[in-house]
Specification:
By secondary structure, the chain is an alpha+beta fold. The protein has four domains: about 80 residues, no CATH class; about 260 residues, no CATH class; about 230 residues, no CATH class; about 40 residues, no CATH class. The chain is about 40% helix and about 20% strand. The chain contains ten helices and 25 strands. The strands form five sheets. Strands 11-12-13-17-2-18-19 form a seven-stranded mixed β-sheet, with helices on both faces. Helix 5 runs parallel beside helix 7, helix 6 packs antiparallel against helix 7 and helix 7 packs antiparallel against helix 8.
Length: about 650
């Protein structure tokens, strides 16, 4: 077997084979001795004058206007009466030369069979293989009876000669009844009757002379015929025979007609069959049966061989195309041959068959194997989680700027930064290779490392968040304490001012109270106007005393409040936690995965594409360079190595 290539693309290989058949032997062969002649040789009908003299009225059957009997009809119309039967639609133009003769033409509803018979039924001729056969008197009479029935019972129109140009007219009424020949030596039928296959070998004793086989050479010779050839030499056949002629030692049948016309079957008895055989023996053979010839002996001949239905010329050589031959496996590609070799269109001495050996491919319904999809899903999951962890590290990195706002957080970020850089390096290492490229064990380790990285990222994010929270609390406390001290100092200074003002208000209130008491001690004057003035002064003094009392009370209360504020203790109020919007703590802490991703139990093939269908796997490669590696991988995966389908 031819070795497969070691490199290059896997492609179809054009192959060819030269096969020589010259020395091959066949069981038998019909060899055509002369070309079949379907026409009547010129002048042959003249040889029938002795059978049908010119003065004898004759009846002709003319299936079509161009039939060879037409010339005989025209010639005879000048010397004797002619009754011509033509088929439907026949034109009279070809008969115009006989218009002045003794001719009567009748057009039938169906095409008549071809024949020529005397009006008295004593002589008759029928065409056979382009020649004329003279019928025995009994058959000639039967033929005349069939012609008479057609003349009187099937005619649709009539044209007579001797009166100018031929013109079809009405058919005269039939003067007597004519029976349709259905039994006896003549049978007239509308459908072709079936002739029983018969055969007879004519000739004398075995003396080397040619023997005649009256049968269809399209039918394979039977053992009896082959035995005759083996014993006596050549056997010749007349073509075609059935369904035109069927003979044996007991009699025979002769069939005339066409597929769209009348069929006439003439039944022969044994003597009549013998006479017909004698007539046929004088004809030149058309096919000769040879036994066990070599094809080289048949060069240039027209033959029919076993297994073939037609006669064909034996060609010198042929070019045959066997199409595509799909190899069962890649190693068998160079030697792939068609499951069925092309049949030859004709016998030949040699042929060159060409075909294209194509590599095996996955079936049309094959799709990506689930193993490939599982690994692709794992690759996508790991890539997604690694991207999320890296994004979380970026968000943690972005928090570094917050350290500038909190003095205590700057020291914490010295440690956070070292952890952040270490986790970044680990994330970069994990992203250097896909899990599918590492195999089950390597992928499982990568998944574990990824889980550890995610946990470390969450821990770092939590530490940064806690440190920021503590820094925010401490900053808030310091700010609140400073604000509290400022408020106490302001309250102390306000209390001092309020105490001074309260003392002044007490003095004014005492003066107003003394003045009011003095006015109240003054006796009530008798003079009406004096009483009115005293009353107004007293009301004004009372209003002034009440206003000063209210002012004194207000200052007293404010002084008490200021002194309380100046002496109030510090109470820390923690600020509200940040929200969970973008950039806040909850946003940069990665969520832990629901479950660990599943790692496939089988590694992907190192080369090729893995496909599957109906519980079978195929490993598809493009180049011979990958074949050895693919074979090992296919054995591991239970797959078959195939090529990429050509586009």
């Amino acid at each position: 077997m031819t070795a497969i290539p070691r490199t290059g693309p896997i492609e179809a290989i054009d192959r060819e084979r030269l096969v020589d058949h010259r020395d091959e032997e066949r069981l038998w062969a019909w060899v055509r001795e002369a070309p079949a002649d379907a026409t009547v040789p010129a002048g042959l009908l003249g040889a029938a004058d002795g059978v049908l003299p010119d003065a004898t009225p004759v009846i002709l059957g003319l299936p079509e206007a161009g039939h060879p009997l037409l010339a005989e009809a025209v010639r005879r119309a000048a010397a004797g009466r002619v009754y011509a039967l033509v088929g439907p639609g026949a034109e009279l133009g070809p008969l115009e030369d006989a218009a002045r003769g003794l001719i009567l033409v009748r057009r039938l509803s169906r095409r008549p069979p071809p024949f020529l018979v005397s009006a008295d039924g004593r002589r008759g001729l029928v065409p056979f293989r382009g020649r004329w056969l003279a019928l025995p008197s009994g058959l000639a009479g039967a033929l005349r009876q069939a012609a008479t029935w057609l003349f009187w019972n099937d005619a649709e129109a009539e044209a007579r000669g001797g009166a100018g140009r031929l013109r079809f007219g009405d058919v005269p009424e039939r003067p007597f009844d004519v029976s349709r020949p259905r039994i006896g030596p003549a049978i007239l039928a509308e459908v072709a009757p079936r002739l029983a296959p018969r055969a007879v070998v004519a000739g004398g004793p075995a003396n080397g002379r040619t023997r005649l086989l009256v049968r269809d050479p399209a039918v394979d010779p039977d053992p009896e015929t082959l035995a005759v050839v083996e014993r006596d030499g050549r056997v010749v056949a007349l073509d075609p025979v059935p369904p035109t002629l069927s003979l044996d030692e007991h009699g025979g049948e002769l069939l005339l007609g066409g597929p769209d016309g009348w069929w006439l079957r003439l039944v022969l008895d044994a003597p009549e069959a013998r006479l017909l055989v004698d007539a046929l023996e004088g004809a030149a053979p058309v096919e000769t049966l040879r036994l066990r010839p070599r094809l080289g002996e048949l060069a240039g001949r027209v033959v029919r061989l076993p297994g073939r239905s037609d006669f064909e010329a034996v060609a010198d050589s042929l070019e045959l195309d066997a199409g595509d031959a799909r190899a069962l496996d890649l190693p068998g590609l160079p030697a792939a041959e068609p499951a069925k070799w092309p049949e030859s269109p004709a016998p030949h001495l040699a042929h060159r068959v060409r075909w294209r050996a194509r590599p095996p491919v996955a079936p049309a319904g094959a799709r990506t194997d689930p193993l490939v999809m599982d690994w692709a899903e794992l690759d996508a999951t790991v890539a997604k989680r690694l991207a999320e962890a890296t994004a979380a590290l970026d968000r943690v990195e972005a928090r570094r700027g917050a350290a500038e706002r909190f003095r205590d957080l700057v020291r914490s970020w010295l440690g956070f930064g070292r952890t952040l850089e270490r986790l970044r390096r680990e994330a970069e290492e994990l992203g250097e290779g896909l899990p599918s490229a590492l195999g089950p064990a390597g992928a499982a380790g990568l998944v574990d490392r990824l889980a550890s990285l995610e946990a470390a990222v969450r821990d770092l994010a939590g530490q940064v968040e806690a440190a920021e929270r503590q820094a925010r609390l401490e900053a808030a406390r310091a700010e609140q304490e400073a604000e509290h001290a400022r408020r106490r100092e302001a309250a102390r200074r306000e209390a001092e001012e309020l105490a001074r003002r309260l003392g002044e208000a007490e003095e004014k209130l005492a003066e107003a109270a003394a003045k009011l008491a003095e006015l109240e001690q003054v006796p009530r004057p008798d003079d009406k106007q004096a009483r009115r003035r005293r009353r107004k002064e007293l009301e004004a003094a009372r209003r002034h005393h009440r206003a000063l009392d209210r002012e004194h009370e207000r200052l007293r209360r404010e002084l008490e409040a200021a002194r309380a504020a100046a002496e109030a203790p510090f109470a820390f109020r923690p600020p509200a936690e940040p929200g969970e919007g973008p950039g806040e703590a909850a946003d940069f802490v990665p969520s832990p995965p629901d479950e660990a991703p599943r790692v496939p139990a089988e590694a992907l093939p190192a080369v090729g594409r893995l496909l599957s269908a109906r519980k079978r796997r195929w490993l598809v490669i493009r180049r011979w360079d990958d074949f050895e590696d693919a074979s090992r991988e296919a054995e591991r995966l239970g797959a078959t190595v195939v090529a990429e389908e050509a586009r």
